[in-house]
Amino acid sequence: MAEVGEIIEGCRLPVLRRNQDNEDEWPLAEILSVKDISGRKLFYVHYIDFNKRLDEWVTHERLDLKKIQFPKKEAKTPTKNGLPGSRPGSPEREVKRKVEVVSPATPVPNETAPASVFPQNGSARRAVAAQPGRKRKSNCLGTDEDSQDSSDGIPSAPRMTGSLVSDRSHDDIVTRMKNIECIELGRHRLKPWYFSPYPQELTPLPVLYLCEFCLKYGRSLKCLQRHLTKCDLRHPPGNEIYRKGTISFFEIDGRKNKSYSQNLCLLAKCFLDHKTLYYDTDPFLFYVMTEYDCKGFHIVGYFSKEKESTEDYNVACILTLPPYQRRGYGKLLIEFSYELSKVEGKTGTPEKPLSDLGLLSYRSYWSQTILEILMGLKSESGERPQITINEISEITSIKKEDVISTLQYLNLINYYKGQYILTLSEDIVDGHERAMLKRLLRIDSKCLHFTPKDWSKRGKW
Fold first, then answer.
1. Phi/psi at 387 (nearest 5 deg)?
2. 157 φ, ψ (degrees, to nearest 5)
3. In this predicted model, what pLDDT tens digit does every residue of 241-293 receive, in sequence order?
4. Burial code of 266-280, b = ≥16 C-beta within 10 A, e = fewer?
5. What's the whole-model pTM score?
């Protein structure tokens, strides 16, 4: 059996953790870092095939040293830009990128050809979703969807616009590890899930204190209290473009409010793994959702979008902060992004790849929105109602590709006697009606006061 002192970065071994059912399990994990505090060794572990947000520091008591796999000796990692490679070799290091293409059971429908919509009786087959690729287990928010489970997959070449402006070369040993222990934001204490590039001198602190209105960060409670005596903001900077009840949305220009936008990106990066936008906020607009009480407008979540997108992206990054998750706010943010697209007279789609939680929210939103349209269709003169993909896209502002992929995901499209037919089974209808009864938060378009700008004239930036 190996000794604790023999454990180095790159080793793999089973590590004890509690799963979402509060049961002990021993998944395989990789040691990413080792540190010594007062003579006691701590090990930063990444659970193989689990989401990175579950990575954590553990003591040697949780390691199964009988099953340790030491890293294989490899040739020196090729240097990049004069810098040595970032991580040691480990067993099975070669990662095979699996791209799964799910062929629809029927041909891809013509976007302008009308499809008949009709119900099926209760004995009809249950709609079966297309099987996702490799899953990652998670005890966060009860989801096990893969963060890259997207029909578009990972872009094959570095993107030149949007929030994914790099080629993942930033994914080194430093950015693979959470660097902030805890964030205090108003009345909430948040445990970050991922690395965020806050100044290095702040990362050893047990708590990072943020002003919940301007998002400025400080190293101590005293610093925060001193800041609050001078900070006169009680809501995000920018224009309030929507208010209904206690919910408001503020539009913030990343060029005019650069400091706030950068602080927002730093906070968001703690909960978004794959976005790389931190400092170049000029080409972006930020839409911050808040909840109002007697103390002010408290940030709930936000999404950003490019001022000019050549790929019809209406969202770059989207996030609901952890204290507000699983309360319908994620769908409200998505619904709001499509309301803006409707006012702009465009169809939109989120920037890919989506995070695991983002993908779940979007699939659910697209499904509910499209089913709402289909179930609202009225038959004329006894004929079955008909609708085209283009018409669904125009009504909802959801991009045609997302409409088609959602219909396929729900397994609604059938090809019968030369015609596309959308079949709504009782299971689908019942499930949709139950979901809509729970969806209490909706955007009221009458409360939106928004005038789109023409960003093609650079002077307006």
1. -155, 150
2. -125, 155
3. 999 999 999 999 999 999 999 999 999 999 998 776 667 899 999 999 999 99
4. bbbbbbbbbbbbbee
5. 0.77
Q: Distance between CA atoms of 303 and 338, rounded to whole angstroms?
A: 12
What residue ranges in 341-458 does DSSP mark as E strands? 349-350, 386-387, 413-416, 419-424
Look at residue 173 and tell me whether its pLDDT is greater than 80. no
Q: What is the DSSP string of 164-189?
A: --S-STT-STTTTS-----EEETTEE
Helix (H) or strand (E) segment spanning residue 400: helix 400-409
For residue 1 the two structure tokens come to 């059996």
Active-site hit among 212, 306, 335, 351:
351
Q: Which of 349, 347, 389, 355 shows the shortest CA–CA distance to 370?
A: 389
Rounded CA separation 214/197 (Å): 18
Q: For every residue of 263-317, which 3-state class applies, written as one string?
A: HHHHHHHCCCCCCCCCCCCCCEEEEEEEEEECCEEEEEEEEEEECCCCCCEEECC
Residue keyed to tokens 């003579």: 39
| Contact by Cβ (8 Å): 198, 219 | no
Which amino acid is located at 88 in the chain? P
Among the ranges given (93-107, 220-234, 364-378, 412-426), the one the predictor scored with the smallest mean pLDDT = 93-107
Contact present, 284 and 316 (Cβ < 8 Å): yes
User: Catalytic residue at 351?
Assistant: yes
